[in-house]
Design a protein that fits this description.
Strand order of the largest sheet: 15-14-13-12-11-10-16
Structural class: alpha/beta
Distance between the termini: 33 Å
Strand content: 15-25%
CATH topology of the largest domain: Aminopeptidase
Number of helices: 19
Largest sheet: 7 strands, mixed
Radius of gyration: 26 Å
CATH class of the largest domain: Alpha Beta
Shape: flat
Length: 514
């Protein structure tokens, strides 16, 4: 994506080479051909505090003017301002107030515009002392507001921020238990003697578990792979008074004496996720190395050597693998949705006839057009779905809004049954009479829902007077599961005649069109 950067000093070295830049403080030109925009104004170099405060407050008014000119369907990223580089000759309270007002104005704009995302520059700058952030040599030579020595770490940080905005993150954190979630070895120390809660080091493990629980609430699945006696672990989960994570906090576990690479493979198969969606945390260097070598797709960070390092370790996990800009309702319900899938699998084993099993599920399918409420989730699905994604095209919220402006027809799919609600788990995007995107989350596959969704989308297109529809399958390393789908729906050479097509569905699916 080619961004246009509004700036008040030299920042070219900190952004990708294909970005374009305004003149210093120039808002006279807003190029319509840009894919998106960035507002990156830093504190000016000026000693007169009164003039400095006035200039900072003026930036907010200029930003509001620029926002009124840009296409509201295109992404606009705002950077806050850091006052740490100023040299006040008095208390500096007035400057602090001006910068705070400016940042508050940016926050208000983020809340008022659906295409605006706000990044806190202090998250990056506080890693460095002022002497490393700013280099007078490069300021005088090229009016550079940051030291060019920070261009690489800034670019890496900014790339992670773009991933977070696009909701690209890992799906599952697989955890060891002994000396990872608590201090000590359960099989040797017993429930009463493991270190959890109370004084150090127990309080460090307790805080670590509290952070992991919040990670779960943000939509990350927690699982366990541990060499232990399962009965002992179930006992400690139930009885220990300081245990934050209980059995129902985990979507699945492998607690046995099998090697951990095998356990992680089994967990990935059970959850129907790729190994590259998993992060594995274990205190043992030998177990870490085993998984790194046997399962190179799995991320295996080094575990801290001391319990007091756990908060910093958790922060690094979140920042590197799990953070996103906005948590959707579907994210928050992730653990319960995967548990419901396990109940469905158990129920299926009780039926000999598959149709009878599907009828027993009481499946309800809701198809609704894209709107401001579901666009974030639709964009997230295009970023994260791999296995049943016919074209694997990745789109942002702003992309989807632009498609709607151009007349594309975009629908999302929600699925529920007697075991639970999976939320929005599929989408279809149609440009004219060509299906550009068709995808479903892997956790709802295996019940024929993909065929119901496709036929309902085709029926909607037929109602709008479209006679033939084209679609394609673009193979990737991960979507082989979908290779024969369009042929199974009734397409021939990627084309279907809607007048001749069989668009009927089984009567045990309850379909609601909104």
């Amino acid at each position: 994506m080619n961004y246009f950067v509004f700036r008040n000093n030299t920042v070219e070295r900190f952004f990708p080479k294909d970005y374009a830049f305004s003149g210093y403080g120039d808002i006279s030109s807003v190029p319509a051909e840009a894919d998106g925009y960035i507002w990156f104004y830093q504190l000016p170099v000026k000693y007169n505090e009164g003039q400095l405060c006035g200039q900072v407050r003026g930036y907010a008014r200029q930003l509001e003017f620029v926002l009124s000119l840009v296409d509201p369907a295109k992404p606009f990223i705002l950077f806050t301002m850091d006052s740490g580089l100023a040299v006040p000759f008095a208390s500096g309270v007035d400057l602090m107030a001006a910068v705070a007002e400016y940042n508050a104005a940016l926050l208000a704009l983020e809340r008022g515009y659906s295409n605006v995302k706000l990044l806190d520059i202090s998250e990056f700058t506080r890693r460095y002392p002022a002497s490393e952030l700013f280099d007078w040599k490069f300021w005088f030579i090229s009016q550079m507001g940051f030291s060019p020595h920070l261009s690489k770490p800034f670019a890496e940080w900014f790339a992670r921020k773009l991933d977070q905005i696009a909701s690209r993150r890992k799906k599952c954190l697989v955890l060891d238990l002994d000396n990872t979630l608590w201090g000590g070895v359960l099989g040797e120390d017993g429930v009463e003697e493991i270190k959890l809660g109370g004084d150090y080091p127990g309080k460090a493990f307790h805080l670590f578990q509290e952070g992991l629980l919040e990670l779960k609430r943000s939509g990350i699945m927690l699982a366990v792979c541990s060499k232990n006696n399962e009965a002992d672990v179930l006992d400690v989960w139930e009885r220990h008074p300081d245990m934050v994570l209980r059995a129902d906090s985990f979507v699945a576990w492998r607690i046995n004496w099998t090697d951990k690479a095998t356990g992680i493979r089994e967990l990935a198969n059970e959850l129907n996720i790729g190994l590259d969606s998993i992060v594995f945390v274990d205190d043992s260097p030998s177990e870490q190395e085993l998984v790194r070598q046997a399962l190179p797709e799995v991320e295996v960070p080094d575990f801290p050597s001391q319990p007091y390092e756990l908060p910093a370790f958790l922060k690094s996990l979140v920042e590197k693998y799990f953070r996103i800009y906005t948590v959707t309702a579907e994210d928050a319900a992730k653990t319960e949705q995967y548990k419901a899938n396990a109940l469905r699998a158990q129920s299926q084993r009780e039926f000999v006839d598959f149709d009878a099993f599907l009828r027993s599920l009481e499946i309800k399918i809701t198809i609704e057009a894209a709107d401001e409420f579901n666009i974030p989730r639709i964009a997230q699905l295009t970023q994260k779905t791999n296995q049943f994604n016919l074209t694997t095209r990745r789109y942002t919220e702003s992309d989807i809004r632009q498609f709607l402006q151009r007349g594309w027809k975009i629908w999302c799919l929600s699925v529920s049954d007697k075991f639970g609600d999976d939320g929005i788990t599929g989408c279809a995007m149609v440009d004219g009479s060509a299906i550009d995107t068709f995808l479903l989350s892997c956790r709802i596959l295996g019940k024929g829902i993909e065929f119901v969704f496709a036929k309902q989308v085709l029926s909607l297109l037929k109602e709008q007077g479209i006679k033939t529809v084209s679609a394609e399958y673009v193979p990737t390393a991960k979507n082989g599961l979908a290779s024969g789908f369009w042929k199974a729906v009734g397409f021939k050479d990627n084309i279907i005649d809607l007048d001749a097509a069989d668009l009927s569905i089984k009567d045990y699916y309850q379909v609601i069109i909104k």
